[in-house]
Amino acid sequence: MSLAQAMLDIARVEVGSSTPDDKARIRAMDRLRALLSVLDSKTSVLLRFNAIVVAALAYLVVVRSADPFAESGATIKAIGFVIGHVSLLLSVVSCGFAFPVINVEPGFFGRRLDRIADGVLGFDDAALKRLGSLVVHRTWLYSRAWQLAVAGGTGFAILVALATIH
């Protein structure tokens, strides 16, 4: 079935020439897609935060001439080294969890979430279940990315405080 035919089928559901179950499925899919859109927006902001933290930490941790603990004791240097590297790692891993959340709509490249068999409306319970599973999976990924970003950002804040105090 072509994309045009699928859109025509959706329009028929919306104008009332289908069953109440079809209308309910379309509304449920719209709500799930709205959740995916919210996750996409939140993840975009999270990735910007991670970019700032990663850039700052990479500058402090990787560039030796910018060592904020150059005049500190060995213990403070070791603590700063560990916190800086662990925070950098956490922020980078957070990005790894976040990237799969931001995804191009499957229909954009010709793939479909809803498999249409025998020319019938492809918004059946199986398609709804697949979309629901996708939302659950991306929510889990976003949650892990957020937790790691908070840990990395907290480490960065501790590193800055430590450098300021010493």
Keywords:
166 residues, mainly alpha
- Output the helix-strand order: HHHH
Strand content: under 5%
- Overall, the morphology is rod-shaped
Tell me the major beta sheet.
Answer: none
The residue fraction in helices comes out at over 70%
Average pLDDT over all residues = 81
Distance between the termini: 67 Å
| Helix segment tally | 4
Q: What structural class do you assign from the helix and strand content?
A: mainly alpha
How many E strands? 0
Radius of gyration: 24 Å
Low-confidence stretches: 113-121
List the helices and strands and how they pair.
Layout: H1 3-15, H2 20-62, H3 74-98, H4 125-165
Helix pairs in contact: 2-3, 2-4, 3-4
Folded structure, characterized:
This protein has 166 residues and is mainly α. It has helices at 3-15, 20-62, 74-98, 125-165. α2 runs antiparallel to α3, α2 packs parallel to α4 (125-165) and α3 packs antiparallel against α4. The termini are far apart. The model is unreliable at 113-121 (pLDDT under 50).
Give a brief rundown of this model:
With 166 residues, the chain is mainly α. It has helices at residues 3-15, 20-62, 74-98, 125-165. The protein is rod-shaped and about 75 Å long.
